[in-house]
Recover the amino acids of this structure.
């Protein structure tokens, strides 16, 4: 039985679990995801039919590129007016382009990392240290050595991968560990926000089964989108922009995909790579409807708000050696950004902070500045700000949120969500990643590889 079918049947039948790679172990394991393994398809068989790909984010682009290389006739239908999905940048905000979506390359063992190296792109300097705002003071880890609550939070983070108790939310776990209220925002910033949500929303078991996001690098001098553009140049003419798919009719002998303008496309196979939040919103109607086990798997995988904050100031009011500033408030972590340390702060916000800021609309920037004023005093952020931009991905009609996260009930659900149907419908995209790399670019690319490998088997 093919791996995906096996997983699908086993999960439906016996409720078994395929465990992904562990939180701490992931970054040190032998690389299963080198560029090499994503450059080629495993199949030697010769499917040469027509494939439609829905969505031109990282997963859709990579799948199109792989299929095209195999001589498969591929068309990519993209709803928006640009390709890249949750990868987008802004050129005119500061003296260097800034990412509005994904900016970090997690780990050093992925096709994405190899791609950056191959493109000779440089990584931004990482020298410096994180600062932590606590009780009105901004300190380094060394300065907080005597703080028992801080030490407890860091200690829990560092040993979390060894946790073997029952599943519960991180919030419940923090309370069982006796973490004090004053340290919870920091715990949230370190452990929940990087994974796409807040303490109350993340399940500890699915979290520790996911890949660690502690090792992250940022490029300088180029953008994620230009990297992808270079890599996937050969298939860019296969993308039909402004073509939101509204229905997929998948019958035994035919598949018809219809876009909003009423254009109908037929194909032998279809790969769906739209964000999970779009699937949950039923923006695409399936006929016959998807099995309830699949739609309930969609529901159980966490999705929620996500936004990116960019701020620039006439002068730096944070310490010169800051790499980031962790803080209570809607923004869990401000990142000091840019090729050289400059006057720009950025932040990626998920969970409760994102929900709050998203609800504020235009007022969100002022709220974020207030947070910085509180940390550094004297209204310094509000007085010195020279520009701000917030991209609320929740309000992007074809994205509808941040990233999928490891919710309490999500164990085993990604396998069901990603399983193909009748060798006709295939699913890829970050949320469909079953090796613990969901919520990332390299994880999305990995799902494209898996789907294409399976698709090409006759
Ligand atoms: C703020 C933010 C910060 C992030 N930071 C990082 C980071 O630092 N590092 C990292 O690795 N990852 C990060 N991520 C996650 C990363 O961006 C995603 O995991 C990855 O880009 C997802 O790729 P994808 O192909 O699965 O989906 P997407 O990029 O979302 O692509 C899906 C595509 O489907 C299209 N679509 C939707 N509906 C339809 C329809 N009906 N018809 C046709 N097309 C449709 C969309 O327009 C979109 O282009 C971040 C994400 C966000 C939001």
């Amino acid at each position: 039985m093919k791996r995906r079918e096996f997983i699908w049947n086993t999960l439906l039948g016996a409720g078994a679990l395929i465990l992904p790679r562990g939180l701490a172990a992931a970054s040190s394991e032998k690389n299963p995801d080198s560029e090499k393994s994503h450059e080629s398809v495993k199949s030697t068989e010769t499917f040469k039919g027509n494939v439609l790909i829905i969505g031109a984010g990282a997963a859709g682009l990579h799948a199109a590129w792989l299929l095209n290389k195999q001589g498969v006739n591929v068309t990519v239908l993209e709803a928006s007016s640009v390709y890249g999905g949750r990868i987008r940048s802004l050129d005119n905000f500061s003296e260097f382009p800034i990412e509005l979506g994904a900016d970090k390359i997690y780990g050093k063992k992925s096709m994405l990392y190899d791609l950056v190296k191959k493109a000779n792109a440089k990584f931004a300097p990482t020298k410096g240290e994180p600062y932590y705002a606590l009780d009105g003071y901004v300190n380094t880890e060394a300065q907080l050595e005597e703080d028992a609550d801080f030490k407890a939070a860091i200690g829990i983070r560092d040993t979390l991968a060894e946790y073997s108790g029952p599943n519960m939310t991180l919030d419940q776990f923090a309370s069982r560990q006796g973490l004090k209220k004053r340290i919870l925002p920091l715990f949230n910033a370190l452990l929940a926000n990087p994974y796409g949500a807040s303490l109350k929303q993340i399940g500890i078991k699915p979290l520790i089964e996911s890949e660690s996001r502690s090792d992250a690098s940022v490029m300088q001098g180029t953008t994620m989108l230009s990297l992808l553009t270079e890599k996937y140049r050969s298939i860019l003419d296969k993308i039909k922009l402004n073509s939101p798919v509204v229905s997929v009719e998948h019958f035994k002998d035919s598949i018809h995909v219809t876009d909003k303008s009423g254009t109908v496309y037929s194909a032998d196979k279809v790969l769906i790579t739209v964000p999970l939040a779009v699937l949950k919103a039923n923006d695409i109607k399936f006929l016959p409807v998807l099995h309830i086990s699949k739609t309930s798997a969609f529901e159980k995988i966490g999705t929620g708000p996500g936004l990116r904050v960019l701020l620039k100031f006439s002068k730096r009011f944070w310490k010169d050696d800051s790499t980031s500033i962790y803080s209570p408030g809607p923004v869990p972590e401000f990142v000091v950004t840019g090729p050289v340390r400059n006057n720009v702060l950025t932040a990626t916000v998920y969970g409760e902070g994102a929900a709050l800021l998203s609800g504020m609309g235009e007022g969100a920037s002022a709220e974020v500045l207030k947070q910085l004023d509180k940390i550094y005093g004297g209204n310094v952020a509000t007085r010195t700000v020279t520009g701000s931009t917030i991209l609320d991905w929740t309000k992007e009609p074809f994205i509808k949120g941040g990233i999928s996260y490891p919710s309490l009930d999500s164990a085993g659900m990604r396998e069901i969500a990603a399983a193909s149907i009748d060798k006709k419908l295939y699913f890829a995209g970050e949320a469909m990643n079953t090796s613990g790399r969901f919520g990332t670019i390299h994880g999305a690319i990995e799902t494209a590889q898996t789907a294409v490998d399976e698709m090409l088997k006759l």
Remarks:
- Confidence is low (pLDDT under 50) at residues 1-22, 24-33.
- The chain is about 30% helix and 20% strand.
- Residues 441-455 form the longest helix (15 residues).
